[in-house]
Amino acid sequence: MRIQHLATIALTLLLTACGFHLRGMGSFDFALQELQFKSADSRAPLAKALESRLEAQGVELNATAPFTLYLQREQHTQRVVSYTAGTRSAEHMLTSSVDYAIRAGDLPDLMTGTAEVQRVLSFNQNHVSASNEEATLLRNEMRNELVMQLMMRLQAIKPEQLEALRTTAQARADADAEAKQQELDRLQQELNLEPLAN
């Protein structure tokens, strides 16, 4: 077992020395230089991890930025996908997902999306505690993958793209507000009409 550990450490050092990076651990080039960041649960591990990664990549998170990234709560599901002999062990499909939106002020969402990761976990009824620990580690790995997905999607967004969406959303909101006001004015006129004399 010691030889395996030493071999693993040696391989890690070798890969690091030649500049190897784990998938998803590289840098990102963001066109969006600033964002407001809001979350349904700002203390949740996913929200904290995403906030840290954005700041590490040079994205300024402040309350005056024109666009807001809103993160919903992380959702977890688990279902059995197969059984082994005797039904003492089973494979579970773990799913972690999160909905997000890009907003501008009080306008309707400019962009929405869902990041999702799935993994298969072998669950052994004879070793429940070990299986639970493995599930926790796997969920943490999946959360990191969610962060990477969100970073890649945000990286692809251009400020001019959001500006165009905001202009369209604002025009639609103004038209709706004008139509409502015209309807109110019409109803008010009807109410103020005097009855015709006999």
From TrEMBL:
It holds the Pfam family LptE. Gene3D superfamilies: Lipoprotein like domain. Residues 173-188 have a biased composition (Basic and acidic residues). Keywords: Cell outer membrane, Lipoprotein, Membrane, Palmitate, Signal. Its main location: membrane. It is a lipid-anchor. Residues 173-198 are annotated as: Disordered. It is found in: Cell outer membrane. Belongs to the LptE lipoprotein family. Together with LptD, is involved in the assembly of lipopolysaccharide (LPS) at the surface of the outer membrane. Required for the proper assembly of LptD. Binds LPS and may serve as the LPS recognition site at the outer membrane. Component of the lipopolysaccharide transport and assembly complex. Interacts with LptD. This is LPS-assembly lipoprotein LptE. It comes from Thiopseudomonas acetoxidans. The gene is lptE.
